[in-house]
Amino acid sequence: MEFLNLSQEELVYRSGVSKNVIRELRRAIIRRRGTRTLEAVSTALGFHPTHLDAIAHNRQPPIPRELATLDPFADNLRLLHNHLEQAAHYITNLINLLDNLIGRPEPTEHDPDRTERPG
After folding, report:
1. How far apart, in whole angstroms, are the C-alpha atoms of residue 80 and residue 73?
2. Residues 6+ apart with CB under 8 A from 94
3. Position 49 confidence tier, pLDDT thresholds 50, 70, 90
4. Rounded distance between C-alpha atoms, residue 24 and residue 33, angstroms
5. Is the pTM of this model over 0.70?
């Protein structure tokens, strides 16, 4: 949800799943979930319909079609690349949040790629 900049309410609307179920999924509360519920949330998040069901059952989620090829090694590299891009985005958001919490200003137009942080 954070990566897609989706609020809980927006995910409830997109998936048609109750707010309580979304809240429990976000908190990783373990409960048996129906296949349709997990499919609805997976699809609302832009994943393959069986993505969350695979995770819930400790299976590898399907590789998105746009990343799939006939070469398993290339598929794994593309999947890893996709996950690393998502992680980089998440880390950037965390850095910005931490900067805001401790009172550091956001990067300006003149300093978009600030690499050094004052101690």
Report:
1. 11
2. none
3. confident
4. 11
5. no
